[in-house]
Write a structure and sequence with these properties.
126 residues; 0% strand
């Protein structure tokens, strides 16, 4: 059960990152982003999402940040022990690149739709 909770928390964090990234970029550069090809926006979102999920990792060493777990199910699943620093497991791999691209597609779809809906609503009120 704890493995499911770990993955659900990760999924929730990625959804929050997608909404935050898309809302921020469309707020500042929405008119320009609507004119871009969708693949350009997806690439921009993927880079931003990769940064949001990894910016803290290089700082973990100098700050002496360690993350450990006592949950035996999580330890067995990831092949670690009580003293293993989980941050090393979280380092980006090829799968993360695919995941960031999928998140970029989701962000582009959701935030473009919302941006166009807001613009159409504003245009109808004038």
């Amino acid at each position: 059960m704890s493995i499911i909770i770990v993955y659900l928390i990760y999924l929730w964090i990625t959804v929050i990152h997608c909404i935050f990234t898309g809302a921020t970029l469309y707020f500042f550069w929405g008119a320009r982003m609507v004119r871009h090809h969708r693949l350009v926006n997806i690439a921009i979102f993927a880079v931003c999402l990769a940064f949001l999920e990894t910016y803290w990792m290089p700082l973990s060493g100098p700050l002496q940040l360690t993350v450990n777990t006592t949950d035996t199910l999580i330890q067995r699943h990831f092949g670690i022990d009580r003293q293993t620093n989980i941050i090393g497991i979280l380092r980006p791999r090829y799968f993360h690149v695919v995941l960031w691209l999928v998140q970029g597609v989701f962000t582009e779809w959701l935030c473009r739709r919302q941006y166009i809906r807001i613009i159409n609503r504003k245009g109808g009120n004038q």
